[in-house]
Amino acid sequence: MEPAEAEFLAEKELVTIVPNFSLDRIHLGDLGPFNPGLPVEVPVWLAINLKQRQKCRLIPPEWMDVEKLAEIRDQERKEDTFTPMPSPYYMELTKLLLNYASDNIPKADEIRTLVKDTWDTRMAKLRLSADSFVRQQEAHAKLDNLTLMEINTIGTFLTQALDHMYKLRTNLQPGESAQSQDF
Amino acid sequence: DSDGGSEELVLTPAQLIRSLEQAWLNEKFAPELLESKPEIIECVVEQLDHMEANLKRAKTGDLKVSVHRMEIERIRYVLSSYLRCRLVKIEKFFPHVLEKEKSQAEGEPSILSPEEFAFAKEYMANTETYLKNVALKHMPPNLQKVALLKSVPKPNLDSFVFLRVLERQENILVEPETDEQREYTIDLEEGSQHLIRYKTIAPLVASGAVQLI
Asked: From the CB of residue A180, how many other CB atoms can be counted at a distance below 10 Å?
């Protein structure tokens, strides 16, 4: 999956905006109604678009706050395992919201750094786990607290590596069912 | 707004799109071609047509128009990506896909839609003609046949996949990787995420109990 596709999925998450226009309810997504000054929840893709057209102000999600994120980062650094993240799309949402609406987000730069630090710690742990998974030839792993973007970043490489290992291993055993395709 | 005509599945538009996205992700990450989902495709296409029609009638410049247009584009993207993903697999595994479709029992779901089936057959015929004209007819008479089923690689069902559990499952067998290991069973809790071989959980993907990610 391309990172852009992971972002595409993340864009469906809901975020609160304060519109400066009015519009009645829109079907399909059950969006709106929109009234000036009244907060309403919309998917991120719409929020970003409206913001770009200067039709709203974005309210950062509750977790996008310096103290909260510092706590999360510290927790992540302390533990060997993965801590649950405040949003399954924390990375994509941070990037999108800080890119398009940093003026609506207090201490945007600090937030960016904190999220990046947390990401880096988690990716380092992920590389270690992946390495140990391959080395010990595990057949199964439980990855509850990993987010899609993290899985996606290492996913293709890891599954391909495991496939190669498997092929090498099964070819060592002679007389296996004639599955080998050596064309 | 849209109720469509005769829906056997009574899904809200939002649920329909959710099903499409699930089918899309599963198809993307599964090593083999999954069952075709004609009900979902038909309903999505109908939904899109309906939305397009609505748009034509609305006044331009209306904010609603651009929001609907964006929604339509997003749905279209998922639909196209899903169909394209299937075509890639059909081209990659064409003899096996056709073989599997032929051997599906009565009442078992199809792997290919009628259009995909026609495409696969044509692709096979074209490949055979191509190989014959470019190489085979110049070979000695006893070497002029190619067994496509044997030469075209099969999908690797032993690939590892990532999944999220939608419905709790008990006692899923995990086969050992090496001779020294023993097999063991695990329970899949709802909402948990796992990395495991595709083969073991293939039926769970088909039944919708797990979602590939």
From this structure: 10
